[in-house]
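User: Let's play a game. I give you a shape written as tokens, and you guess the letters that built it. Ready? Here's round one.
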């Protein structure tokens, strides 16, 4: 069985990453996710490509550059709940569609992509509750 990297090739993985961030820029329903990123998405396209290259069975570019493939640490400063996870997955689903990925490849990636996105989640809810300094306890 071929790996996703073998199916897509280097150019296909790069196209996927480009499409992912293009969709993030275009899609109104992922504004919260887009706001977590800098105005210039080019560095993120490169990092995602390097990560997905190895994750999909190709060259381990991300670990060669950064020494680790731990995704929780770089995402720690951001509040990532179910809504943000699902927005990321929506961008990835649409990117796979945009590059013409086969249904077989989409099925192959569906559960593993969810696991990656869910592992980065660091909050159980997406809604930020404003702090009330006058509130001593709730319940």
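Assistant: Ready! My guess for every position:
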């Amino acid at each position: 069985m071929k790996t996703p990297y073998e199916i897509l090739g280097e150019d296909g993985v790069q196209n996927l990453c480009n499409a992912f961030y293009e969709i993030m820029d275009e899609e109104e329903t992922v504004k919260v996710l887009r706001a977590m990123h800098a105005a210039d998405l080019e560095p993120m396209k490169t990092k995602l490509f390097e990560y997905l290259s190895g994750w999909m069975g190709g060259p381990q570019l991300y670990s060669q550059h950064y020494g680790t493939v731990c995704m929780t640490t770089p995402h720690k400063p951001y509040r990532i709940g179910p809504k943000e996870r699902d927005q990321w997955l929506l961008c990835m689903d649409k990117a796979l569609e945009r590059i013409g990925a086969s249904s077989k490849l989409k099925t192959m990636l569906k559960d593993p992509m969810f696991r990656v996105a869910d592992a980065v989640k660091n909050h159980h809810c997406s809604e930020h509750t404003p702090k009330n300094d006058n509130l001593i306890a709730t319940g």
